[in-house]
Task: inverse folding
């Protein structure tokens, strides 16, 4: 039986509980809890919203637009943090196994989106051999419009800097901002048909709700 994404991410957290220093673990837990506490659903993109014209740079060089992504069916956008994010390296392969083949059969596109610069973002596509789009949202413009950006809190910044790490160097963006894990399904009219968010990056959307949203659009198109 295929493990759920929740089970896979739960195992990652359990490994951290067993192996991380308590102080580092608590910083991680506190940041995720703070994002949950401060979440403002009113700021997030909603079903029925019209999506603005946008441009994403696919890591292999192609320019992706709303028109190109919805040319043959709905567009599924999966926002993730960056190429070496451990949870993202669990979630995206899960979607590759459980979601992408079925989306292809329905004529939908799939694009994994991060603000990380293409030269660094390409690592996750090569590592897992993804044959769906992996693309850069330059300056996090689309993520900002969708209301899903967050910034490291002060304890997380201090912990990162103490290790000589700055997420802006990792992403190439020069900022502490990252997108919250989010899935947005856009119909061929450029309207949001499904949107799911997780302020806690160890909680992410399972494949089935995404697939059901795309199936529902396919039925509407067939009527």
Result:
């Amino acid at each position: 039986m295929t493990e759920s994404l929740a089970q896979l991410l739960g195992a990652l957290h359990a490994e951290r509980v067993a192996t991380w220093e308590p102080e580092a673990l608590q910083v991680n837990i506190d940041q995720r809890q703070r994002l949950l506490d401060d979440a403002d659903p009113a700021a997030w993109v909603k079903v029925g919203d019209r999506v603005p014209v946008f441009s994403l740079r696919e890591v292999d060089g192609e320019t992706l637009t709303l028109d190109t992504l919805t040319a043959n069916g709905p567009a599924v956008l999966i926002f993730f943090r960056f190429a070496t994010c451990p949870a993202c390296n669990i979630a995206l392969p899960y979607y590759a196994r459980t979601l992408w083949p079925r989306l292809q059969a329905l004529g939908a596109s799939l694009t994994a989106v991060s603000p990380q610069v293409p030269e660094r973002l390409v690592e996750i596509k090569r590592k897992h051999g993804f044959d769906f789009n992996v693309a850069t949202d330059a300056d996090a413009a689309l993520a900002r419009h969708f209301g899903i950006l967050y910034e490291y809190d002060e304890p997380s910044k201090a912990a990162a800097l103490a290790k000589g790490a700055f997420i802006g160097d990792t992403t190439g963006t020069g900022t502490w901002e990252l997108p919250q894990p989010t899935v947005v399904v856009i119909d061929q009219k450029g309207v949001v048909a499904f949107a799911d968010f997780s302020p806690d990056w160890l909680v992410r959307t399972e494949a089935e709700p995404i697939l059901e949203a795309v199936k529902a659009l396919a039925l509407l198109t067939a009527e």
